[in-house]
Amino acid sequence: MENMRQAIARRRRVDLIFHVLGAICTSVGIVTIALLLGFLIVKGANRISWEFFSSYPSRFPHKSGILPALVGSGLVMFVTSLLAIPIGIAAAIFLDEYAPRNWFSSLIELNITNLAGVPSIIYGLMALGVVVYWMGLGRSIAAAGITLALLILPIVITATREALRSIPREIREAAMAQGATRWQMVRHHLLPYSLSGIATGVIIALSRAIGETAPLITIGALSFIAFLPPAPIQSQPPFLSFEWLSSPFTVLPIQVFNWVSRPQPAFHEVAAAAAVVLIVFTLLLNSTAMILRKRARSRISW
To answer: Fewer CB within 10 Å: C terminus or N terminus of the chain?
Structure first.
């Protein structure tokens, strides 16, 4: 009995030590992020205004704005979402619910897991040879969207598969026992129940994509641009235009890199303001994921 008490006391001490170490590590991370955000806000807050959002970059810091980078980021992320989300979710459903369990499926799953950890510059080099030159898309918004879609596709597939696997096997068996086809079971049961996990994974993947710089620089994104892509919606028939897909572009991370690389301190303030906008946008995406997850869970009754 005495030995058991000593063992329990020892385990409690070890548990307390790990608890304290975890709290210290968490506090260090939170304080570091807070200091970095505070530094950026203090340095760039006075530059954030309506003119900053609606102006083009300039060689004069007080006239510089982020309008082309903001529009470029939005269009690139639109193309990325349009490609990565449906393909990633469909691939995850096929691998989890339809693909036979054999060595080939295991090989595909292993490669998807490995691709999620490949450095982003590798995707940029691949896209430069395949998308830009072989497919002939050039240094365009379409090429950037395809590049980032390939980058986050393994993340979307992995997150969707984990969300599907969290659904109890009994729900699948009950649906099939009632005569539902496999697709009806997926559509009416698995997808609604796993929607919160899928949405969280997708938005986290998009949050990573919006901050990527290396692959876009590799495929030839501009670091300074003083014009906007053609508008997708026209006032004359056929009203829709796809010329913007072949337009040169820049995005917020590249614009920040351009200003930071300049020696004038005033440009560093502009870069800090653009970095704050990018961080706020990323936080909004993650907050959206949390809200969607909460609402999706509240609608589900097991």
So the answer is: N
Tell me the backbone φ, ψ of residue 233, rounded to 5 degrees: -110, 125
Give backbone dihedrals phi and psi of 171, rounded to 5 degrees, phi first: -65, -40
**Domain match, 13 and 157 both:** no
Alpha-carbon distance of 55 to 66, in angstroms, equals 6
pTM: 0.83
pLDDT digits (tens, 9 = 90+) for 98-150: 888 888 878 888 888 888 778 888 888 888 888 888 888 888 888 888 999 99
Q: What count of Cα atoms within 13 Å lies in the side-chain half-sphere of residue 3? A: 0
Helix or strand run (H / E) with residue 203: helix 191-210
Q: Are residues 74 and 128 in the same domain?
A: yes
Tokens of 40: 């950026």
Could you give phi then psi for residue 67, rounded to 5 degrees? Answer: -55, -50
